[in-house]
Design goal:
The protein is α+β, with helices and mostly antiparallel strands and 212 residues long. It contains 9 helices and 8 strands. A 3-stranded antiparallel sheet has the order 1-5-4. It has a 3-stranded antiparallel sheet with strand order 6-8-7. It has a two-stranded antiparallel ribbon with strand order 2-3. Strand 4 (67-71) and strand 5 form a beta hairpin. The protein starts with a helix and ends with a helix. The model is unreliable at 206-212 (pLDDT under 50).
Length: 212
Amino acid sequence: MITYMEELSMAEAENLKKTISRLFRQTCILQMRYDPVTLAPRDNPDYETCIRHREFIENYLSVLGCELEHDPQEHIFRLKGEGAETEKISQTTTMIILLVRMIYRDKILGEGLHATVTNLKEIREYGANTGLLDRKLTTAEWRDTLYLMNRHQMIELPGSVRDVKDETPIYLYSTILLYVSAADMNQMIEEYREEIAEDEAIKEIIPADAAQ
């Protein structure tokens, strides 16, 4: 591996190091990224680096107990395996990812590839309409969720997370489908509905007991 790196130009070797570092930090490398201001598509040089040095990256990751998964249809490289860093996702963040996945699915199926943009207002509307968000989230909860989704290449933001407002456009990447599968989504909805039903049943019992 050292010999391989030494045979590269200094600039190419540095690009390779940075790409591997980004792969560990953000999990996914997409072929096409969107300009955070204009949302115009542009090629991602990290993806091309993965293509050029795929065998080396795979060998390097295997030593660390990881693997490089390539989805040629979605044009995504993804870090997987026991050696990959795992990140605990809160229930609130999982719920928002679920809602954003619903929005992505509905827009892809209903309006085509040019409609994969949402905002906080729409996410809250989906939450209210599905009954999955029954309370007002704190600024910290929204910030933490958006930061995680942005880091793992699920969304693109036109600026920093702290500047996101209700109408700020949030571009949705197809990688959102990697984090919450259809089966997970249905299971989560069913579990949530069961919890709501139990809470409602308790509310009905407590007044009756209190009255006696």
